[in-house]
Amino acid sequence: MNNTYPSTGVSARARHQRHGSQMPAHSSNFSVQLSLVLALSAYSVHAWAQESGAPDVVTSAARTSQVVTDALNSTTLITRADIESATVTDLAGLLRQQSGVIVRQNGPTGNLSQVSLRGGDTKQTLILVDGVPLNNLSFGSATLEQIPLSLIDRVEIVRGNVSALYGSQATGGLVQIFTRKAQMGQQAEVRFAIGSHGQKQASAQVSTGNDKVQLSAGLAHEQAKAVSARNAAVANPDKDGYRNNSGNLSVRFTPNERNEFGVKFYQTNGYNDYDELFGGTSAIHYQKAKTEQLTAYSNNQLMSNWSSQLILSQGVTDAENTSISSFAPFVTNDKTTTQSISWQNQIDLNVGKLIAGVSHTHQTIKNGNTYTVNNFSKNKRDTNSIWLGYNLDQNRHHLQLNGRWDKLSDFGHYETGAINYGYDVTPELKVFAGYSNGFTAPSFWDLYGSSWASNKNLKVEKAQYAQAGVQYDRQKYGTRVTLYHNKYKNRIYLDSAYIPQNADSRAKGVEWHSWYADRGWNVDFGLTYQDVQFAQTKERWLRQPRVLANVSLGKTWKQWQAQADWTVQGNMKDVSNKTVAGFGVLNTSLFYSPRKDLKLGLTVGNVFDRKYEPIAGYNAMPRNFLFSVNYKPQW
């Protein structure tokens, strides 16, 4: 196994830090040694890796810990260090800067944000927080706009179908968010920021503990009030505001090096104004949203080659929308509760690693508009799952096999599988290919939402995904090219009457990613060309731009750190036969550390004040400035 390869899509900044620890090329024992120390879980692996000086690992691409450079699916790791030096101030903006990631936002910061990968829609992109699905049962989307950056420890993005690992809603890819965790020693961080357009941010995070018990807790507040969410003449033209209060708590108990037990909790409470096309220009529309999650986990090394992870969790997404106009006030409420239990085991064989797991997920929904089918209420979905995986990194060969069985209470059972293989032609050159199938179950809104905009006869979406590519790396610079083709059957779309229907679709494209990191310079370049269309008519699929590009340039010298990120999106077809023009946005940041425990920052977003629509009829964040002070006392 060659550990000099770059991350498959990771930013140059994070990758440059990663090369501080190099392993011998083609070490057949390294994966076994690493798994014995690191493979317990997503919660403990990354922390132990940092404490031991081992290379960074990801856990999402194969449901097991692996050096990020060995992931066969195109995978990006965004570290806490990347977040703290970012040129944006929200999660949606951070994801938009990554290669091949589409973010659709209903207005400026704080408004509904949806992510899609590899030609999929938001319903085909699974969002996890600490291993637990964030996608709600109503619409199949996730409240990414309610997750502040202060809450996040790291983010992993896996492009391409991973349904054979995670089940429904992962046919386009996966975004997994890991919240802040407890660590040994005494650590604290306080941050204040103020800027244009009413931007104010404040956060505090503390962590304390010894080799047995660790505790971490944090609080955060942020707000902004920039522009009107919509640009339609019939919408209220006033500025629409946003604010969010959040908190997190993590407790970890490690009685010995073979066992770890922990509890993690977070809650966010958000408020944002938005616009609708009814009620007149004086109408007021706002949303109150709460997202919370409680997770308990147990990571255990049962034998020298057998590790186990048990997770119990409950997550809640609750949104209340209020409209006040000349009509009577109208309030809708949508609440999804997700309860899950999963148990995964990993056995390190003489050759490769075997993974086996089972899970049960129970989702319930409460909605202001009753969901009914033939006068029978539909308010829950249960999913039972079994999965198997095998990973091999032997000399020049890299193999990943996955299989999964899911039984949904309302749609029956589905079997999915995946095979991915990589071969080291030389220590610098690797070729890879893969094939998988997957599925996505319809959301409850599509099925039962209303008599005029739902379809109880919808079928489950199915996908067949294939990829092939090549990667070249010389440690300080490299490039990766991936060709992909996702063939959808029964993909859900809205017809001209806004009623959901099934249709076949094709999504094919090529993604090129290059990087350079040396002597304090970091350069990252990504270019994606995709063609997403209806299989029969060849019409373009809505909200799928053909071209995506990103260029990042960073420099660190002495006490200074500067970064510039340019993000480009081509035009795309939108609802009502509208075409959204392409755009390019430049964001910059400059940080200065007068001493080790203090960092001063200036972030300038949308430097050239580009006025563009993220989706048809909605305004984007205008040029904005944010001054920040970050204090980390040293003990």
Number of strands: 35
Uncertain runs: 1-54, 369-376
Mean pLDDT: 89
**Which range best describes the helical content: under 10%, 10-25%, 25-40%, 40-55%, 55-70% or over 70%?**
under 10%
Radius of gyration: 23 Å
* Main beta sheet strand tally, sense and closure: 22 strands, antiparallel, barrel
Number of helices: 7
Shape: globular
Distance between the termini: 39 Å
Instruction: Give the percentage of residues in beta strands.
Output: over 45%
Structural class: mainly beta
For this entry, give a set of tags.
635 residues; mainly beta; 22-stranded antiparallel β-barrel; five-stranded mixed beta sheet; 7% helix; globular; disordered N terminus
Q: How would you summarize what this structure contains?
A:
With 635 residues, this protein is mainly β. It is globular and about 70 Å long. Residues 1-54 and 369-376 have low confidence and may be disordered.
Give a written overview of the molecule.
By secondary structure, the chain is mainly β. It is globular. Helix content is 7%, strand content 55%. The strands form six sheets. The protein has a 22-stranded antiparallel barrel.
Question: What is the secondary structure topology, with strand pairs?
Answer:
Layout: H1 12-18, H2 30-38, H3 42-52, E1 57-58, E2 66-67, E3 75-78, H4 80-84, H5 91-96, E4 101-105, E5 113-117, E6 125-129, E7 132-133, E8 152-159, H6 163-166, E9 173-179, E10 187-195, E11 200-209, E12 213-225, E13 241-256, E14 259-274, E15 284-303, E16 306-324, E17 330-348, E18 353-367, E19 372-373, E20 376-377, E21 380-394, E22 397-408, E23 412-424, E24 429-440, H7 444-448, E25 461-473, E26 477-494, E27 500-518, E28 521-534, E29 547-557, E30 560-569, E31 572-573, E32 579-580, E33 583-595, E34 598-605, E35 624-631
Parallel strand pairs: 6-9
Antiparallel strand pairs: 1-2, 3-8, 4-5, 6-7, 8-9, 10-11, 10-35, 11-12, 12-13, 13-14, 14-15, 15-16, 16-17, 17-18, 18-21, 19-20, 21-22, 22-23, 23-24, 24-25, 25-26, 26-27, 27-28, 28-29, 29-30, 30-33, 31-32, 33-34, 34-35
